[in-house]
Amino acid sequence: MTTDHGAGVSPVWQFGETSLTRLIESEVPLLSPFELLPDCTQAHLDENLDWLAPHFYDPNVQLLAITIQSFLIRSGGKIILLDSCSGNHKHRARPFFNQREWAWLDTLRAAGVQPEDVDIVMCSHLHVDHVGWNTRLENGKWVPTFPNARYLVSQREWDYWRSEAGRASLPRTGDFVTDSVLPIVEIGQAELIDDRVGFSEEISIEPLHGHTPGHFGVHLCGGRREAILSGDMMHTPLQLRYPHWSTRFCVDQAVARETRLRFLADHADSDRVIFPAHFPTPTGGYIRRAGDHYRFEFAETA
Prior knowledge:
Strands 1, 2, 3, 4, 5, 6, 9 and 10 form an eight-stranded mixed β-sheet that branches. The chain starts with 12 loop residues before the first strand and ends with a strand. The longest helix has 15 residues, at 253-267. It is α/β, with parallel strands linked by helices. The chain is built from ten helices and 16 strands.
């Protein structure tokens, strides 16, 4: 079973002139499959236990392995961070995230990057485990962790979390918008973007709506290799075995299902390396057709 990670840098993946490094905050058995997936039953687990355990599911504690990580991208002289994990000293309703002291900043520095070096922070969506290191606590005040960065947030996403429906959902986790997003907006470092933004020929944003209204992935293209960082479009390979399953945390389960089915069909049996945000080490792999469903095949090397 995978273990909790402190400071530690994963191998570098290369896509032409663009490189990708995973920055792990935590990698442990974390979520009950029945909490995450409302359609899941014990029979489903038993049927798939031969490949689920021990890498994706720990039967001893009956929890799915869920990695909390960021993706560090170097391209065209820019340092880009996709998502910022759960952060330190945050008041959260879920004990796992509450008032933690992670070594994630040490991991960033071990990758050769200081917080001041980051040019762009992309928020795939605004959930508790993707925005935490946007800010850090300094003299009792939440300030940007990356003082020189532009923080890119989907306009559609921001509008949702400022709506009555978005605000009503915050007590389930704790108000991460107030401590991890709003300070960035108020100081003028947030840039609200359209669903499709291209930084260069090598990097573009790919809308993957449903999990949240403005949820997006990132497409890397360089040389003969392509990668898609697919965020929370799927949390576990059980969603390839049962592609109609959306999570309990999806804002719109029907749209999330449509997005996932289209994505799986589009990228199955290709050479594109897919990086689902919460899949355990090594995270990157390929979507393969398996009859009327799919399976996930880890890439052997970076």
